[in-house]
Amino acid sequence: MLRVGYPSAISVDLLRDFALEVEWIALPDGLDHQIKIDVWIPDPYPTRAIRIWPHLRGVRLVLSLLAGTEWIPGVVGPHVTICNAHGAHNVATAEWTVAAIFALLKHFPLYLDIQRSGIWKRRFEAPAQYASITQDPRPHYPPVMLEELSGKTALIVGYGAIGKEIERMLEPFRVEILRVARTARALPTVYPVSDLNALLPRAEIAILILPATAETQRLIDRPQFALLPQGALLVNAARGPVVSTDALVEALRAGRIRAALDVTDPEPLPEGHPLWSCPNLLLTPHVAASSPQFAANALRTAAGELCRYMAGEPLRNVVRAAV
Amino acid sequence: MLRVGYPSAISVDLLRDFALEVEWIALPDGLDHQIKIDVWIPDPYPTRAIRIWPHLRGVRLVLSLLAGTEWIPGVVGPHVTICNAHGAHNVATAEWTVAAIFALLKHFPLYLDIQRSGIWKRRFEAPAQYASITQDPRPHYPPVMLEELSGKTALIVGYGAIGKEIERMLEPFRVEILRVARTARALPTVYPVSDLNALLPRAEIAILILPATAETQRLIDRPQFALLPQGALLVNAARGPVVSTDALVEALRAGRIRAALDVTDPEPLPEGHPLWSCPNLLLTPHVAASSPQFAANALRTAAGELCRYMAGEPLRNVVRAAV
C-alpha cells in the first residue's frame, strides 16, 4: 500500500474523510529517525518541513498544501515530482486581497488610532502621517473621510485561478479590471507581462498575485513605482521577492504610493526593518490563506492528486516534474 | 425665481452642473441676519445646520443631503416638508459595511498592532485581548489566523435601498442572507421585525441599516445580544440609538460578540466612555458616507427633487410631509 507521510499536527480525522486506500504515516515535528514513504505532504511551514526532509527515504511525489512551492525543488532535488495545492486557497487569498484594499481605502489604520486615542475626531483633525496622498485637486465639502472602491481601476498582475477569483469578488464594485499574465489571451483581454509598464499609469490599485520565479523577481522595482499614479495602492498577495523592498520603502516614505502586503522580502521581516514603520502601509505576517478551512481545502486537493497517482492517471497540479 | 439656500462650504460649481432655473443662496456658517429662502439644503453637520435655522424665513421644503433626517422635524416644526437624499449614499454606506465586516473577520486590528510592534508574529503569539471568541471546537493545524466571509450567514436588519446594496455586494462571497424589514415581503423573503428574535441565533453577522425612529430605538438590547451566536459580529451602519449602548458594552466586555460601528449613542462619543476601550470592536466616527462622491451624489438627488417641486410633480423622497 502507498505510504503517505503527513505532518502529525494535522488532524488524522481530516485525512480519513477522504477514504483513500493508502497508509497514512504521521511525521512528528521532531522526527529523528529515517522513515520510508512514497508520497510526502510537507508541513506548510517551510522551516519545519525542511527539518524533516533529511529523515525521509523513497519519496517520489511531494504534494504541497500551499499554492507557492518555491523552496521545494532546492530541498528535494530533481528526482521527485512536485504538485501544489492549486485552487485550495483561492477564496481565502482573494478575500484577503479585497479586505486589504478596503482597509486602506476606508483609512481603517487611522480610525483605529483615533479609536485608541479615545477622542471622537475625524480625518481632517488627524495626525500628519495620515495626510491624504491621493491626487484630488477639487475642493470637498463635507471633507473626505474615506474613499470608494466603486469606479476605481485595478490591475491584476498574474491572472491565474486566484487572480480570477479576485476579479469575481470585485464584480459588484464596478471596478475596471486590467489583467496581466505570462501569456496574453483574449476574452477577457489579458495583456502580456511585456505590457506591464504601459498599464501601470492607469492602475489606481495594482494587485500582485503571480508565482515567484526567476522571471518575476523584482518585477516591481523603481521604474514601476515611478509609473504608478500618485497615491496608487499596491497589494502584494503573492510572494515578497516579486517586489524590490528597497524601492517599496522609498516609494512609501516619499508618499508616492500606499501598500498592503501579506508577504515581504525577507520573510520573516526582521526587527528594526524600515518597512515596519513606513506610512500608508498595512502589513500582515503571511496569514492570508490561514483560515479555518485551510487544511480541509488543501487536503482535498492533495487527495484528488493521490487518487490520480494511484490510478496511473496524469496529475493535475504538477509544478515541477521529476527528471 | 425659487430661492434655494445651501451651505456656502459646498462648491457652487457642483450646483451649477445641474443647470436649474433657481436662485442659489449661499448660507455661510456664521450667518447672523435673516434671509428669505423657499427651499433649504441644510449643512450635513446638524450642529451647523441648527445654528443657521433661526435666521431663515419662508422655508417650505427641506432637502437633506443625508439619508437620516431624525433631527430635522424637531427643529423646523410641522409646516415644512422634509425630503432625504434617498439613494445618494447607498454605495459608500454599503461599501463601509463590507469593509468593516472584512476588517474584523481578517483580524486587522490585531495585525496593525503587530505591525506597530515591529515584530513578525502571528495570531497564536498575540496578546490575550485578541483571543478568539468564536465557537470552533475543532483542532486546527495550521493555526487559524483569520476567518473567511464566504459561507457565513448574515442578517440584514432594514431591507431598504442600502440593505439591498449590501446584499448585492455580498453576492460573490456566497453569504446566506436573512432579511428583516418593517413589512414582510416575498421574493426574496423579507421577515417582519416581529421575527427578529427568532432569526438572531442564526446571525453570524448582524447588519443594522434601518432608520432611527421611535419603533427602532434600542431594537438591539440585552435580550437580542443574548440570542446572537457566540462570537457573532454586529455591524451598525444605521444610527446609534438603534442599539442599547449599555448592553453593547456588556456584550463586548463579556467576550460574547464582536462589533463594527460607524454610529454611537451618544454621538459624538465623549472622552472616557467605556465603548472606546471595549475589545473586539472597530469604531469609526460617523464617516461611512463621507467619500469624495458625497456632495455630487447628494446634490444630484436634491436637484431631482427640486425639478419635481418646480414642475408641481409629486416628490419622491418625502420623509415627513408638511401639515
- CATH homologous superfamily caption of the largest domain in chain A: NAD(P)-binding Rossmann-like Domain
CATH class (first level) name of the largest domain in chain A: Alpha Beta
H and E string of chain A: EHEEEHEEHEHHEHEEHEHEHEEHE
CATH architecture classification name of the largest domain in chain A: 3-Layer(aba) Sandwich
Task: Sketch the major β-sheet of chain A.
Answer: 7 strands, parallel
Total number of distinct structural domains of chain A: 2
Count of alpha/pi helices of chain A: 10
Secondary structure elements and pairings:
2 copies of one chain form a homodimer.
Chain A: E1 3-7, H1 12-16, E2 23-27, E3 35-36, E4 39-40, H2 46-52, E5 56-57, E6 61-63, H3 72-76, E7 81-83, H4 90-105, H5 108-117, E8 153-157, H6 161-170, E9 176-181, E10 191-192, H7 196-199, E11 205-208, H8 222-227, E12 232-236, H9 245-253, E13 257-261, E14 281-283, H10 294-310, E15 318-320
Parallel strand pairs in A: 1-2, 1-4, 3-5, 4-6, 6-7, 8-9, 8-11, 9-10, 11-12, 12-13, 13-14
Antiparallel strand pairs in A: 7-15
Helix pairs in contact in A: 4-6
How would you describe the overall organization of this protein?
Chain A has 323 residues and is an alpha/beta fold. Chain A has two domains: 2-88 and 291-320, Rossmann fold (3-Layer(aba) Sandwich), CATH 3.40.50; 90-106 and 147-283, Rossmann fold (3-Layer(aba) Sandwich), CATH 3.40.50. Helix content of chain A is 28%, strand content 17%. Chain A has ten helices and 15 strands. Chain A has helices at residues 12-16, 46-52, 72-76, 90-105, 108-117, 161-170, 196-199, 222-227, 245-253, 294-310; strands at residues 3-7, 23-27, 35-36, 39-40, 56-57, 61-63, 81-83, 153-157, 176-181, 191-192, 205-208, 232-236, 257-261, 281-283, 318-320. In chain A, the strands form three sheets. A seven-stranded parallel sheet of chain A has the order 10-9-8-11-12-13-14, with helices on one face. Chain A has a six-stranded mixed sheet with strand order 2-1-4-6-7-15, with no helix packed on it. A two-stranded parallel sheet of chain A has the order 3-5. In chain A, helix 8 (222-227) links the parallel strand 11 and strand 12 (232-236). In chain A, helix 4 (90-105) crosses helix 6. The longest helix of chain A is centred in the C-terminal third of the chain and has 17 residues, at 294-310. The radius of gyration of chain A is 22 Å and the shape is elongated. Chain A starts with a strand and ends with a strand. The model of chain A has no long low-confidence stretch (mean pLDDT 95). Chains A and B meet through helix 4, helix 5 and strand 14 of A and helix 4, helix 5 and strand 14 of B.
